[in-house]
Amino acid sequence: MTQNTPHKPSRSEILKPIELVAISAGMGLFVGLTILLATRNWALSSIALGITFIVALVVIAMLALGMKPDAAEKSDLDEQNQTGETPGH
User: Fold this and answer.
1) Which string of DSSP letters, residue by residue, matches 3-14?
2) First to last CA, the chain
3) Helix, strand or coil for residue 69?
4) CA distance 18 to 8
């Protein structure tokens, strides 16, 4: 029998999206600063920073979606899918 208490996410589960955005921001800053130091052009640097941030964010999101869940995640998903209500209500 499963418990009806809601799953409380751990600190690492809560901070995972922030980590992924921070990694993308770091990549964008690296490229933006590299372009700025090479060309001294603020407009080109900011455009490169924005494009790199968005591309890195999308690539990281696609890689995260492609990962297979482990046994603990599968059991958690099964618990969340088993509700006491009938479908459609």
Assistant:
1) --SPPPPPHHHH
2) 22
3) coil
4) 18
C-alpha distances in Å from residue 69, one per residue of 36, 46, 49, 77, 78: 41, 37, 32, 9, 12
Residue 87: per-residue pLDDT: 56
Tokens of 44: 């080109």
Q: What pLDDT is recorded for position 15?
A: 87
Tokens encoding 52 = 């790199």
70/40 Cα distance (integer angstroms)? 47
pTM: 0.71
DSSP conformation letters of 31-67:
HHHHHHHHH--HHHHHHHHHHHHHHHHHHHHHHHHHS
Round to whole Å and give the CA distance between 66 and 74.
15
State both tokens at 64: 């995260």
